[in-house]
Specification:
single chain, alpha/beta, Rossmann fold, six-stranded parallel beta sheet, 11 strands, binds the ligand Nc1nc2c(c(=O)[nH]1)N[C@@H](CN(C=O)c1ccc(C(=O)N[C@@H](CCC(=O)O)C(=O)O)cc1)CN2, oxidoreductase, THF_DH/CycHdrlase_CS, multifunctional enzyme, amino-acid biosynthesis
Length: 296
């Protein structure tokens, strides 16, 4: 059997960002509408700093209005909520994202539920989760949306496929399952308590790994020819004081069995920010009662 096709998330994300840029130019031209995204970072987590910097840079590159709020690690929950409420009321801001994780003194759930659902470009608010679960128009979490785009690009119509999502987080696993149900997949959500996890995974035509455990999914967990989407971004020791990124799937092992597979880095990760830009344009359109461009 030949080796798996490597799904190039970086290239797909570049294409999506280019389409976002064209959509923004069209909105500015036709409606004088410049979508605006505010990103809030609390503290100095090194990875979060990189993600927030990249979000702001790519927002500007797409021609959108970008605002960054960097708050100290000892910021109180009340101060963060006050900032979120001010952004809710700001007409130049169509999307609000509070970077996770947050410091221990701040309840992430309280912050998320304070964001205006219409501006919740992360799609984490219960209103958006409920809309997605009931098959209605929602803002959809960026990482699962990116996974869906890659799966569709690889497999075409997903209808009738056996999909297994490993992981049940509110941010990835649950919305991923809802999106795949909407595509008419037969969906299983597996997790740490699932009995005989390898056997459950082996049922999948489409396997989504989102557990946060480096290299957990092995070749013998994969049905030959299956499409494997790896959401894991785990930083592991690479020796000599260095680290490297690895996914939840043992890539070298799995690519001999899978039909197609996302690498880490360069797979799902870049799609997260591209989908955030896409969601900001969609949110801006809906706030102005405009139909979002179909290219997104
Ligand atoms: N409010 C949110 N917080 C967090 C989210 C989120 O969607 N909303 N997701 C993650 C972090 N994240 C975006 O915020 C993110 C993670 C990874 C990447 C990415 O491009 N990864 C690259 C590798 C980058 C590297 O070298 O470190 C890749 O996989 O190729 C983008 C965004 C948690 N917080």
């Amino acid at each position: 059997m030949s080796e798996a096709r490597i799904i190039d998330g970086k290239a797909f994300a570049e294409g999506l960002r280019a389409r976002v840029g064209e959509a923004v130019a069209g909105l500015v031209r036709a409606h004088g509408l410049t979508p605006g995204l505010a990103v809030v970072l609390v503290g100095e987590d090194p990875a979060s700093q990189v993600y927030v910097r990249n979000k702001a840079k790519q927002t500007r590159e797409a021609g959108m209005h970008s605002v960054e709020h960097r708050l100290s690690a000892d910021t109180s929950e009340a101060d963060l909520l006050a900032l979120v409420r001010a952004l809710n009321a700001d007409p130049a801001i169509h999307g609000i994202l509070v970077q996770l994780p947050l410091p221990a003194q701040i309840r992430a759930e309280t912050v998320i539920q304070t964001i205006d659902p219409a501006k919740d470009v992360d799609g984490f608010h219960v209103v958006n989760a409920g809309l997605l679960a009931t098959g209605q128009e929602a803002l959809v979490p960026c990482t699962p949306l990116g996974c869906l785009m890659l799966a569709r690009d690889t497999l075409g119509d997903l209808s009738g496929l056996e999909a297994v999502v490993v992981g049940r987080s509110n941010i990835v696993g649950k919305p991923m399952a809802q999106l795949l149900l909407k595509e008419s997949c037969t969906v299983t959500v597996a997790h740490s308590r699932t009995r005989d996890l390898p056997a459950v995974c082996r049922r999948a035509d489409l396997l989504i790994a989102a557990v946060g455990r480096p290299n957990m999914v092995k070749a013998d967990w994969i049905k030959p020819g299956a499409t494997v989407i790896d959401v894991g971004i785990n930083r592991v020791d690479a020796g000599e004081g260095k680290t490297r990124l690895t996914g939840d799937v043992d890539f070298e092992d799995a690519k001999a069995v899978a039909g197609a597979i996302t690498p880490v880095p360069g797979g799902v990760g870049p799609m997260t920010i591209a989908c955030l830009l896409r969601n900001t344009v969609v949110a801006a359109c809906r706030q102005r009662r405009l139909t979002p461009p179909e290219t997104l």
